[in-house]
Each structure stands twice: as structure tokens, then as C-alpha cells.
Amino acid sequence: MKEIVIISGKGGTGKTSVAAALAYTVPRVVMADCDVDAADLHLILKPVVQSSEDFYSGVRAEIDAQSCVGCGKCEEICRFGAISHESGKFSVDKLDCEGCGYCQLICPAKAISLPEQKVGQCFISDTRFACRLIHAKLGIGADNSGKLVAKVKKEARQEATRTGMDYILVDGSPGIGCPVISSLSGADFVLLVTEPTLSGLNDLNRVWQLTARFQIPAGCIINKADLNPQVTAQIKDFLTQQGIRHLDDLPYDEDFSQAITLGKCLPEINPGKWKTRFANLWQGITKELK
Amino acid sequence: MKIAIASGKGGTGKTTLAVNLALRAAETMPVALLDLDVEEPNGGIFIQAEIVEQRTMHRLVPEWDEASCTLCGKCADVCRFNAILKLGKKIIVMPELCHSCHACSELCPAGALPMRETVLGKLRHYRLGKLDFVESKLEIGVEMASPLIGQTIGYAESRCPGKSYVFRDCPPGTSCAVMDATKDADFVILVTEPTPFGLHDLGLAVETMRHLGKPMAVVINRMGIGNDDVLRYCESERLPVWGKFPNRREIAELYSRGELIYPQVEAFRRELDSILQQLESLPRQP
């Protein structure tokens, strides 16, 4: 079983459009949407949820007003400014609390509890393609996106093992922070989707510096390649320098937004133009996997 | 007035709006622009300005002092983030898991875990006419963007006072980093595109900002692609639409070269000026 993670650094370069087209193209695959705080793959794959699970991670402090003696020690030691008081009554701002539990440890009245937080939900679904989709929804402002990504990946691996699938395709999130780091762990191949803008190149460079630490082989698709041939050339130089396989140049094409608008993937709306293209792209990736 | 420019979906045009809006406003008034998308900051590509200050930003994490440690293991017990392990006669600290709560350090009976600085990233402060531009770049491999976002906001508050507007270019998504960038903003502008992806992620962003109780308006980018669902959604949710930028290859090309849009595309400038007018009409806090 091989795991391929699609990331870009910059948002909006076409990760999910590529992921959806590959979900259509690749045989024996489990899809995993790890862009847990703005997941969109389901808008194309139209999943029917088979099972769901609440995801609990981390705690938040709560002060029991009955037992609180108002000494103020908790407010004093909280490094996150999460505890405040008004007319002698102490309370915790859930948005600022990091769940470190320091306040509970030093409260002389044992007035502080640390209930577990439901931070999201994880789903296993059938899709309108042959593949299953593992996806999740992160609660508002939750700070455990990395852990939810790890949960989605774990479920995807179990699903792939159980059903004897050959590949897991992971749609990652933008950026280089905890959800991206979490989605890279244990991956066999990284598919970078970029665009020829100075921002795209800048972000590709940063996400590659992160990826290189994991020593995972990588390939790159330059989307909207004809938008700026000069930057496209710069990206190609960068790929050569860094030993990243250049897999394909995709055109700046209204088919991308058209497909999203119709809730379909590229090979579905225009098979003549996209079907062979993505089949070839997949062949290129499988060659790299060997 | 603190104006956060956010979006659920990435790549909808947050940075384009933030940079153009800030520079246009700075033609007539003092403004600041903060690039709080610290994982992938790009505002600097569009602004050629003089550097005022450069700082390496830190946070504090514990460091094991073997000589004074009695190996009681309390530090590992109190850490809820599994950032401290006691292995045989060694205490191992994993800074990437540490949230800097200080519990281990302050509760250690032997004082064997003093807090030391670890690098979060780099802050750069530029000035161009009436514009102060502050950007922070997260060090590669650092998982938590939140502390750097908080410190960047704090820096700008002390070093760029007296601004008519402080624009904040926020990270994409709806997670903790977005909350940190928006929670004390006076107003939020959400940038979206008129496609089902744009609509879905706008819905998440609106839910998040309502949770924070923020007044907000929507700007629709790449108008002309997709369908009318975003407009219908804004109408039914009573969200004011402050601007509609046309979908033009010319704009995408200017952006790709790191150029400003408003000096070169009139339709874009008109929308930008109307957004500034809407901002001017917002009630000011005393």
C-alpha cells in the first residue's frame, strides 16, 4: 500500500481539483481529505456517510463557582491570559485556554476541572466513484487539526488494509504548520501542486523545505502554467535543482472552475481533454513510486 | 480600527485585497498592514519598501538542567502535551510539542527546568510613505503559528500607533491560527469566489466569525466564474457584499508578477475605492 500526499503551500493552486480527478482515475484507491478545517473534496465526490465518529482531543479548564475561593492563583499563573475575574467571580475564556491544566494543579480549592473537548468528527463514506472517502470536520477554532489529520490518515490506512486497496491519496491543507506536518508523516510520495506566480513559487519553496526534512520523494504539477511562462521556467529550474520530478504543466483553463461549479471532476466534464492527461499523470506517479 | 481580511478557502485573493487596499488607503491616511499568514506570507512580494526593523521572534520552552535534577518525574506528570519524557536517568524535552505553559518549570521542586528561548520565526517591519508593513515568517518545522501571530499583533500595536486602519492579512481556514488573527479585530472582510468551494468555505468562515461575534462584509473575487449561489447566500444571511472584482486574466497575470492591480486596472480600482468608502462609514469606537 502506497500513500501519496497532495500539498501546495499556497492555497487555491488546484490541489482539490487534481485530487478529485485522480480519485476518478486511480484504481483501487482510498481518498483521505486532510484539509480538515476547509475540506472541499466531498463537494465533488458526494459521499454517503457509512460511519462517523466524534473526535475528542485536548481539554479546556472550567471553574466551579461553588468551590472557588477567589484566591486568583489561576489567573496569576495562566500564560495564555485565559482566566479573568469580574466582581470576584473567576471564569475561563475557552478560546484562549490551551488546556495545559496548570491552573488545576495549583488551585487550592480544587475548583477547576478539565473536561475533554469534542474538536471534530471523522467520517468513512462511499462516494459516487469506486473509491471510499475518509473525511472530517473540525470544530470552530479548534486547535487540534494536526491530531484530526492523524486520525483521518489512520482510518484511511485501516480502510485500505481491510478492503485490500493499493493506494491512499491524501488531499492536504495549505501552509506548512501542524496539519501539513501531520499529513506528511508516513507518506511514500508527495505531489506538489503549484502555480507560476511569485507567491506560488515562494510557498512551494517553503513547503519543499519542510518536505525535504521527511526525505519523501516528490513530484510537481505546475497548474495554470501558461499564466506566466517566465515564472514557470523559474519553477522548473527550482525543481531540477532540488531533485523534484516535474510531472506535468496544466493550462490556465476555465474548465477548473466549470468542473467545480458542476460538482464534477475534470475528466468527467471534458473527457477528450482531461481523461488521458490524468491517466498519463498517474502513470508518471506510479513510476516514481517504484 | 483593526480590519481582518480572511477567508475559509485559500487562494481566493486575501493578499491581493489586503495589499491593494492598504496601499490605496495609504495614499491619503496613515495605515498599517500586518501579514499574519505566517506559514506562507506573500504580502512582501508586492511592497517595495524600506526596512525599519528586523527581529528574530522567540517563545520560551523548558531546558533540562541535569546537574540540579533529582529525577522525581513531576515534570513529565504535569505536562499534558507529552512534551516531556522521563527515560531512565534522562529527562527529554520535545520543544515542538510544548505550549509554553511553564507548569513543568515552575512546579519542578529542584528548579531543574529553566525556561529558555526557542526560535519561532522572523519579523520584518517596513515603511513606505504612510504605510507601515509588518510581516512574520514562521521558521520551517515549527508546528504552532499562534504564538508568532500573537507576538506580531503585539509588536504592531506598540510600534505602529495612531493608524486610521490596521489591515490584517489572515491565514486561510477556520482553525486556531485564524481565531488568533481575528479575535480582537473590529471588523472582518471575508474574501470568496463564486464557486461551490468558495461558498462552502465562506459558510465555515461566517460561522467562525459569528461565533466570535464579529461584524463582517463579503468581497467576491473572480466574479463571472461559477454561479450566483454565493450572492444568494449573502442575501439570505444578510451579509453585505462590499465588492465584486471581475475575473480577468490580466489581473491574474499582474498578480503572478508581484504587481499591484489598482494602478493598472480601473474596474479593480473602482471596487477598491468603494470598499474604502464602506469602511469610512463604519461606526468608530470612541
What is shown here, in short?
The complex is a heterodimer of chains A (290) and B (286). With 290 residues, chain A is an alpha/beta fold.
Structure report:
Chain A is elongated, with a radius of gyration of 22 Å. In chain A, the strands form three sheets. A nine-stranded mixed sheet of chain A has the order 3-8-9-2-10-1-11-12-13, sandwiched between helices. Chain A has a two-stranded antiparallel ribbon with strand order 4-7. Chain A is built from eleven helices and 13 strands. Chain A has two domains: 2-57 and 120-289, Rossmann fold (3-Layer(aba) Sandwich), CATH 3.40.50; 61-114, Alpha-Beta Plaits. Chain A is 39% helix and 26% strand. Chain A has helices at residues 15-25, 42-45, 73-77, 102-106, 145-163, 178-184, 198-213, 229-242, 255-262, 266-269, 271-289; strands at residues 2-7, 29-33, 48-59, 62-63, 83-86, 89-92, 112-113, 116-126, 132-138, 167-171, 189-194, 218-222, 245-249. Chain B is α/β, with parallel strands linked by helices and 286 residues long. Chain B has two domains: 2-58 and 121-280, 3-Layer(aba) Sandwich (Rossmann fold); 64-113, Alpha-Beta Plaits, CATH 3.30.70.20. Chain B is 33% helix and 27% strand. Chain B contains ten helices and eleven strands. The longest helix of chain B is centred in the C-terminal third of the chain and has 16 residues, at 196-211. Chain B is elongated and about 70 Å long. Classes of the chains: A alpha/beta (290), B alpha/beta (286). At the A-B interface, helix 4, helix 6, helix 7 and helix 9 of A face helix 4, helix 6, helix 7 and helix 9 of B.
